[in-house]
Amino acid sequence: MTASTRKDPLVAAYFSVQFDNKVVGAFRECTGLGSESQVVEYRATDDKGRAVLIREPGTMKYNDIVLKRGITNDMDMWGWRQQVEEGKMDEARRSGTITLHNQKGEPVAAWTFERAWPSKLNGPTYDAKSNEVAIEELTITHEGYKRVPVGG
């Protein structure tokens, strides 16, 4: 492999989240972009009469997405979570895009997700002795995601 064909790992600076092509937040951490298949096992017999264990993919499960950011005076996540708390699920469900940005602010990777809603929202924990930024955490439950190309 030559230096010109080598693909270096992407360096993350921050993540942005968009709904309806409008950026609604920038986050310092994003976890949970993943899926797994439940494994279904059953016993069978091969053509020589020997017992074998067959393992097949079962139900697909998507991980919850967890986003963390420094708390600001923006109430968007709290308003979205309130829709769920009030039982307004049709209003709360949204599809969107999470975009990874590099240190220059350029998009370098993106994932879309479908029919998402905020299943959990945690406010910051305060420690008066700490100089750290207060962090709020949003957990998004969704019905599917995929990695999509960015840029030209």
Describe what you observe in this structure.
- The protein is extended.
- Strands 1, 2, 3, 6, 7, 8, 9 and 10 form an eight-stranded antiparallel beta sheet that branches. A two-stranded antiparallel ribbon has the order 4-5.
- The chain has one domain (14-148): Roll (Pnp Oxidase, Chain A).
- It has 152 residues and is mainly beta.
- It has helices at residues 76-85, 89-92, and strands at 14-19, 22-27, 29-31, 35-45, 51-62, 65-70, 94-101, 107-122, 135-141, 145-148.
- GO terms for molecular function: structural molecule activity.
- This is Phage tail protein.
CATH homology superfamily name? Hcp1-like
How many helices in DSSP terms?
2
SSE pattern:
EEEEEEHHEEEE
CATH class categorisation: Mainly Beta
How much helicity do the residues have? under 10%
> DSSP strand (E) fraction?
over 45%
For the report, how would you describe the main beta sheet? 8 strands, antiparallel
Cα(first) to Cα(last) distance is 24 Å
Low-confidence sequence ranges:
none
CATH architecture: Roll
GO molecular function, one term: structural molecule activity
Pfam family, one: Phage_T4_gp19
Organism: Deinococcus arenae
Protein name: Phage tail protein
